[in-house]
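DM from R.C. (forwarded with permission)

"hey, sorry to bug you on a friday — could you get me a structure for this? deadline for the figure draft is monday and I only need the backbone to look sensible"
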Amino acid sequence: DDSSTSSSRARRRTKFHAATSCSNLVEAFPSGFEVTLTSSNSLSERRKVMPLADYVREHVLATEVMPDSKSNETWYLFGETYTEKWKALLDGYVLPPCQTCEIEGATALAFGIGGVGSGVQWHVHGPGFSESVHGRKHWVLYPPKKTVAEFHKDNSSRAWMEETYMDMVRAEGEDGRSLPWECTLEEGEMIYFPDMWWHATINLDRYTVFVSSFTTEHNIGQ
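My reply, with the result:
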């Protein structure tokens, strides 16, 4: 019944939250387990391989991404988590309540970890959901028909939010630029991003874990 299903989902969420904590995540993988990192600029065009434990220690816990950091030189774990070992971990994730999430093989999961100030500069892709499993994450978004305020693909998303965005707020729309939609996801909260909406993100806490569920509901019935 609905109550037992709800209880089962709650237990799975609690278990996944514990498994992905800072103290447990690295231990869930073999010693020396390597991950593929991407640059955090708009195109995520660069790749780097390093042990997961080193990434968490050096790039997440010990590093804060500052406004003057270059996103093409800032390494980020997100999206390159499709191996069998990652799938074994993500099998414990509770999918969002959506139409395509109930269809086997119609949802692709991507796991991410970032530290304070990390995030991805403005970019677009298909639709889906993103949940902050640990820590908080700030989002800014523009609908497809809106013009995104100017940005450089290799500057950090933090620079855009703390400099360009604040200039726009001070101008109060008099310069013709539209303010983006925005929200902060608290731990355990989720956002839906529609198809081809521009968005940029910034992680607000020292250890932020998030899971994105990329869906195909815009193709159903076509």
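R.C.: lifesaver. The chain has a mean pLDDT of 91.
me: no worries. The chain has one domain: 1-214.
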